Known about the structure:
The protein is an alpha+beta fold. The protein is 20% helix and 28% strand. The protein has helices at 3-12, 18-22, 29-42, 63-69, 73-90; strands at residues 45-47, 50-52, 56-61, 100-105, 114-119, 143-144, 172-177, 185-188, 190-194, 201-202, 213-218, 221-226, 233-235, 238-240, 242-244, 250-253, 256-262. The chain has a six-stranded mixed β-sheet, with no helix packed on it. The chain has a six-stranded antiparallel β-sheet with strand order 8-7-17-16-13-14, with no helix packed on it. β7 (172-177) and β8 (185-188) form a beta hairpin. Mean pLDDT is 76; it is low at 15-20 and 126-169.
Amino acid sequence: MSILRDFEKRLEGVVEGFFARAFRSGLQPVELAKAVQRYAGNYQQVGLDGVIVPNVYRFVIAKEDLDRFGGYVTPLQRELAEVVQRTAADRDWRLKGPVRIEFEEGEQVRVGTYELRGKVEAPGAGSQPKAAPKSRPRTPAPRQHAPPAKPTADADADAGATRVISTASSTSAILRPLGGTGEPQRITARATVGRLPDCDVTLDDASVSRRHAELTETNGTWEISDLGSTNGVKLNGERVQTARLADGDRLELGNVKLTFALED
């Protein structure tokens, strides 16, 4: 049985009718389980003992979703921690301390969405994320290249947030630089964006990481993911780790600003 299926069965066993009463609509527990797995995979650190992943995860969710969880928050935290532990063991990742899952109410977070931040924390010690280094902006010059590149995360990644936003529907899209510089670039299926020449869309700007972000299309739905960049990805002014895209969304990769448009 997979880790996620086992997670659902274990959670259903907490109380009779758990899902029917607590999660009939809105944010679903399995979404949160997938999120911690994805976050751990995106924010790895290489240490003397091997690959280290975050052991503390904080979800920021809407008040309505938090109220819906009600008295089930504690078992949900316990089962999500179990997902992290089992995933780490399955993939030979290391945890520096006990896994802790936290929930926090967010005034700006919409119902059914979430933000997720994580960190590596040793027992009895807290850690603060490093500030992203400042860099001098340059004029972006997007170029598209045919060979796709396998995404890898920069070693100096700064932990960001994960938010599910809105849904777009098209199998091809256009990235259009703002400010009248550079040519619009057509993308399909999967495209990496970064400073390296072998990225599908190259942005010649010092604030952009070598492989900064990836855009993927699945069944007409587009999504952008931060590949562990130094200066992050912003969607309509808000920093995100992974988010669904809608026609007309504004993207910021470092100091480079783009618009995302569905192709007719």
